[in-house]
Design goal:
This protein is an alpha/beta fold. The chain is 45% helix and 13% strand.
């Protein structure tokens, strides 16, 4: 939140009657403890959690507690990674649909082989208490990519097996493609036409080389490209998208929800999936969210910046007692809780603004962030390397702000994506 205002929780009956914007969290291997702490403290701004299939046993307690509190629990079967050589590891091979020592090829999803994998994924989702599953899909490089026809067939099989099991699972089509293809009118239209009858309850867009660091021009192109998917009239979610770019997709009605990881995976790249597998490598370091600057930085950089002067501390240390009761200490020691809580409030606040003025309110927020970045970069006590980062961010936001303002001037009659429903609402009849 750009102004570091403390939002007081309101009773549900006092909140806006508008359909809220969706927010989903992709749970990493070591994220469950802080997320458990957050939801047991009463967090309701998050709609649900995406659990990777290989981590289900590790996250059993989170799944159980989240189900008790009516969050959606979404299974990612990891078939997109399984289809490329750099990411099909031993943990994924151990899954019943993981297959051989090598990565999947289209033969593994031909005819009955594809149906068998769809059946195994549905059974796994039901057995482990999921409320929704991502059907088996793959990164599509072109409208003629042979994976596309297999994915459509696999989605049909997934919906069929869910129906046979009683229809208690929502089915998500995870549509993954490169940014270049998504923004090409001809190729995008061909893919959208191909999946028109693929059964699903929502579409999650996973666009390679788009995320929280996207330029204004790229964000505008993404927003415009999403319009073609609105005619399907099912919820549309931007997957692996965070930051001001993610908030822009919501503010401009391109999507009805966003999903991303816990201080990571806020943009999507499949470059590592394409490379031959490498041994070694450790866990990704948790980063600290500086919402007034739209930045995620490592812990020591955050510590040095926030301790550099009293003026910096008063402006950028979290003062929300519901988020960081101990201020700076909690920002640094519990970065997952801080990042998720703040993003939930950003999305909640944006969703509470009437659609007629949502774009202009968002642009005001971009201006405030841009001004705060410029203000932070002006302090002599800020570390030189971090100042360089701030100056680059200031330049990016200047161009970003201009591009967004130009789009807002053209967007008065644009269609608006459907938002996903919170789980308690989804179980009731009507809208």
């Amino acid at each position: 939140m750009a102004d570091n205002i403390i939002p007081l929780p309101r009773p549900a009956q006092m909140r806006t009657g508008q359909q809220p914007l969706g927010y989903f969290v992709r749970v990493g291997r070591n994220d469950h403890k802080e997320i458990l702490e957050l939801i047991t403290a009463g967090e309701r701004g998050i709609f649900g959690f995406v659990i990777e299939a290989q981590n289900v046993e590790r996250h059993k307690e989170l799944i159980t507690e989240a189900r008790k509190r009516d969050f959606d629990i979404i299974l990612d079967p990891k078939t997109q990674q399984m289809g490329l050589p750099g990411s099909h590891n031993d943990n994924l091979r151990a899954l019943s649909w993981g297959g051989s020592a090598n990565h999947h090829t289209i033969v593994d999803f031909d005819s009955e082989a594809g149906r068998a994998r769809a059946s195994e994924i549905v059974a796994f989702g039901l057995r482990n208490g999921f409320t929704q599953i991502m059907g088996p899909s793959h990164l599509v490089a072109d409208p003629n990519d042979p994976w596309l026809s297999r994915d459509i067939a696999a989605m049909a099989a997934t919906a069929e097996f869910v129906q046979k099991a009683g229809g208690n699972l929502g089915v998500i089509y995870s549509l993954a493609m490169p940014m270049e293809m998504f923004c090409d009118d001809t190729r995008r239209s061909a893919v959208i036409a191909a999946i028109e009858n693929a059964p699903c309850d929502s579409i999650w867009l996973k666009v390679e080389n788009f995320g929280d660091d996207a330029t204004g021009e790229k964000t505008v192109a993404y927003i415009k490209a999403c319009q073609d998917l609105h005619a399907r009239r099912i919820p549309l979610v931007a997957d692996h998208v965070g930051g001001l770019s993610g908030l822009a997709t919501l503010a401009f009605g391109a999507v009805g929800g966003i999903a991303h990881g816990v201080t990571i995976n806020q943009g999507f790249s499949a470059s590592n999936w394409r490379r031959p597998p490498r041994k070694g490598g450790g866990a990704t370091e948790r980063r600290t969210y500086l919402p007034q600057l739209d930045l995620l930085v490592n812990r020591e950089v955050a510590r040095n910046f926030l301790a550099s002067s009293q003026r910096i501390r008063s402006r950028h240390v979290c003062r929300d007692p519901h988020c960081c009761a101990r201020g700076l200490s909690d920002m640094l020691d519990r970065p997952a809780r801080h990042a998720l809580y703040q993003r939930a409030r950003e999305i909640e606040s944006l969703g509470a603004i009437p659609k007629t003025v949502r774009m202009s309110s968002y642009l005001d927020n971009v201006r405030r962030v841009s001004d705060d970045v410029a203000h932070a970069a002006s302090f002599d006590k800020v570390d030189g390397e971090f100042r360089k980062k701030l100056l680059l961010q200031q330049k990016r936001l200047g161009h970003f702000r201009t591009a967004m303002a130009h789009l807002a001037a053209q967007s008065h009659d644009s269609s608006v994506a459907m938002s996903p429903r919170r789980r308690p609402v989804a179980g009731r009849s009507g809208n």
